[in-house]
């Protein structure tokens, strides 16, 4: 069935229909592969258990009967021989299954690497490590931050099979290990305080994603699970036709639940479940999530019932740990029981802002979740879930909880009057508040960055912390990247020069290693500063730079990108749209990545750039200021910095900074390489962020729970 694994995979058509058929064929092959791996893994586990049982029997080792009494004459040798034969047979079976499993996993990894990125992101969920595989994967960060569809899950499972039988437990959480790992990925140590953690979010990649929120909720829970925690993620089950197949692997738990949403009446939801990489992904199913468009709206604008949709999600998420029998994946615990009410909830953005309010206002006052705690994570403060005050009755909260959510539109808003602000409720009712960077945690307490909530956030500043997001260290790895022309690392940068030359050829530029190649990747939105970037193109061209932009969004910026291509043919290329392979090639091939964002809660592109030895030049705001160590001329080694930052975000200031950047690039190549290597040496993994979240969780348990209002 898999005889052609050693054949190089080549796309044979650009026709969308043919490509879709090819992707479907590959999906079915991978499904068959997954089934084969499960069969082999189960057989290996059974062999391991048999071997352990035989080795632990007293008569197998010594020939003694119960309580050490002597066996009848002749039976001792027969019993011993039989036990030895069983033991040898089991050992041989285990050894054979280990070999076949490792071979299967290696081939599975090769197949996944061939098709990764060929189709849509939706197919990635089909090629994940099978749920319930033989043993917990090795706790390396290649498993922690593996994207859907990456090969790291297979690698981890193979590593697990190489452990001694006495350490294999089918229900155990990931164990600490120093097994082989991706270069640059730190070994993941185990927590000494395992918790039951429940993430609630409107998005979770790869099932639903419109931006960074989906990436975070698709990665951070996996990192925490790899450290030994039991983790659940609760998100909507969006069905709109195109993405229905994403949820094919999610099994109906047949646990319908009726929820009371106040004036909205009783609503019945169902739950679907996927156990992947030691995380319970739970999807709430209701007709309000079955519609065309993205999670929040369609071509006509945002959905008018979003308040109802995410209130329903929040209440369902509060019920899930109490009612769903999906717990039991920690060592020594049988599966099939609820998580219980001593959970740590992580509510993400306004869509989950009612979770802390429900815990304190509905459950805790009735004796439930007395020992639970909630952390409210702000990814983007500009979206707050504000609706007129008359909608408060739709939320299913007690009357005396109106004040924590009450709000008035600021003077600059187009709407006036009293309102309910769900994000405010999350800030006020949670035990701890986190943002996606330390810089953003400070900015949101200022009038300039607080979006009308700076006063509320200042009052909670004593429980407000910033934790910088991580990145997927497997998907974004210059030593293995499948989309780039060459591979390289901090010790050997020759491959980066090849990537630059390949990108210059692809874009139609002169292939000249001396010409600085500058890139910009992002959404064509005012926040990201595309106007600043586009207005700088003439000056970039005058300085001899080659410049490439990749992005889509505002039509006026797309038009300006096309105009610049006509006027600056030798120096500028604009790619309208978005392509994951092209993004990888720009990150790997450019010398500089430009990021003049007006505000940036965290930012990911600067992290990708540093991982690839591409020097970021960015506005000193939010997560950009936190993650980029500004260049210091008179420093040495790691103190030299990892990039350049500037302020304010305008063309003159940015170009003055670029003049300094180009001076170092042209005249101090050794210093330039030092800056490149400094960025490549940073720990950008999700494991680092996971440890910081653990500290927040511990602090929240030391604080008294938020009382009923």
What does the model show?
- This is starch synthase.
- One of its GO terms (molecular function) is alpha-1,4-glucan glucosyltransferase (ADP-glucose donor) activity.
- With 709 residues, the chain is of the alpha/beta class.
- It has three domains: 126 residues, no CATH class; 291 residues, Rossmann fold, CATH 3.40.50.2000; 190 residues, Glycogen Phosphorylase B (Rossmann fold).
- The protein has 22 helices and 21 strands.
- Strands 1, 2, 3, 4, 5, 6, 9, 10, 14 and 15 form a ten-stranded mixed β-sheet that branches. Strands 18-17-16-19-20-21 form a six-stranded parallel β-sheet, sandwiched between helices.
- A hairpin with a 2-residue loop joins strand 7 and strand 8.
- Helix 3 runs antiparallel to helix 5, helix 13 packs across helix 17 and helix 18 crosses helix 21.
- The protein is globular, with a radius of gyration of 28 Å.
- 48% of the residues are buried.
Rounded to the nearest angstrom, the distance between the terminal CA atoms is 63 Å
* Overall mean pLDDT: 80
Helix/sheet category:
alpha/beta
Unreliable segments (pLDDT under 50, ≥5 consecutive)? Answer: 1-12, 57-81, 93-102, 104-185, 330-334
Total helical elements: 22
> Percent helix among the residues?
25-40%
Looking at the structure, what is the overall shape? globular
CATH topology of the largest domain: Rossmann fold
The largest pleated sheet is described as: 10 strands, mixed
Q: What is the second-level CATH architecture of the largest domain? A: 3-Layer(aba) Sandwich
The percent range for strand residues is: 5-15%
CA-based gyration radius: 28 Å
Q: Determine and state the CATH class of the largest domain.
A: Alpha Beta
Looking at this structure, what is the CATH superfamily of the largest domain? Glycogen Phosphorylase B
